[in-house]
Amino acid sequence: MSKHIIAVGASTGGPDAIKRLLSGLPRTCPPILITQHMLPKQLAMFARLLNRLPSIEVSIAERGARPLPGRAFIAPGDAHLQLQRDAQGEYVIALDHAPPVNRYLPSVDAMFASVAASAGKYAIGVLLTGMGEDGAAGLLAMRHSGALTLAQDAASSVVFGMPGAAVRLGAATEIVPLARMADRLLRAANAAALIERSPALDNAARNMILANS
């Protein structure tokens, strides 16, 4: 079971951005959680479309599913996608049918907050194009928990609302063009794996590896 996890949030312009991002990732990449603002029927069709990609297996998230490498889980349209840990400390997917957060169900903020609490420094948060501010506060929670946090840049965003709000809030560790996002994720994941294989590294060495990834 992977310690590392990627969480992706998007809204307006997100379907194409997510497709481009997943197309650049190999089957060996960490598990991916996705919240995209869409109606339930649209999300089901979106998941089927993405599942045609050659490397990543994509499905609508189900309660109790195990996040595994090379798999992506999309929040259903009627629940917030949550990451939790079971009694053995392993990751497990949960679905929260609570009211909308920031007017959205599913909410990027709700997903990011759960990832911050359950994965901390082992997570990477990605906030892609979208209208409004959903995801900005959650991305900040992820950054405070030790996660690497990435926001799509204005030039490649259809709408720089959500990533722009994250940047203004100080939630984004880095601002990255969409064309470079998959490569940035892979470099970060490889650096994290190197750190995990080297438990004797002190904090200074760990931070140097992450900074140069």
Strand count? 9
Q: Going across the major beta sheet, what is the strand order?
A: 3-4-2-1-7-8-9
What is the H-and-E element order?
A: EHEHEEEEHEHEHEHH
Rg, nearest Å: 16 Å
Number of helices: 7
Could you walk me through the main structural features you see in this protein, from its secondary elements to its overall organization?
The model has no long low-confidence stretch (mean pLDDT 92). The two termini are 23 Å apart. Helix 1 packs across helix 6 (178-196), helix 3 packs parallel to helix 4 and helix 4 (136-144) packs across helix 5. It is globular, with a radius of gyration of 16 Å. By secondary structure, it is of the alpha/beta class. The protein has a 7-stranded parallel sheet, with helices on both faces. The protein has a two-stranded antiparallel ribbon with strand order 5-6. 46% of the residues are buried. Helices cover 37% and strands 21% of the residues. The protein has one domain: Rossmann fold. It is built from 7 helices and 9 strands.
In short:
The protein is α/β, with parallel strands linked by helices and 213 residues long.
